[in-house]
Amino acid sequence: MKTYFEITINDLQQVTIWAAQSAEKALLIYETINKEDNRPRRAIEGAKAFFNTGKRNNTLRKLALDSYRASNETKDKAASAAAKSASLAAASAFTHPFKDIRQAQHILGPVVYAALAIELFYNDKNLADEEITHAINSADHKIAILLSNFPEQPLTEKRINQLFYKLDQGIREKIK
Question: Structural domain boundaries of the chain?
């Protein structure tokens, strides 16, 4: 049985713009490698439009899916992570209000995949850690409260899970 809680459109707007700002930092990586493909850019633009209007629609869902497809089609791992970040930024508008670790990843994923894209592109773990720290610092109290409704991210040896854990714990510290 799932445990539900309330998420307002305003909550989702705040998460989405925060996510889009991180995703946008990795966008140039994707566009450098896949010059003709604007699907990740369009997903970020859709996320920003949701922030401005509060309207979730099939167009936004399609933009998120198109960017996800772009992440699967590119051969470069950094570009794939950047496109996934953009996809998740647009999809964050559709985060469901039930206590599930994957729903928490809708909130955290855009930042984590942007940080991973930067790490892979520049071959520098410190840059990813800096991006995570910046995202923690820029997350407002609303984001921290919303995240606290979801299960915590586990810490494992996989780099992606380390980034999820660091971001999750850093944001949760804001409400203690």
Answer: 9-175
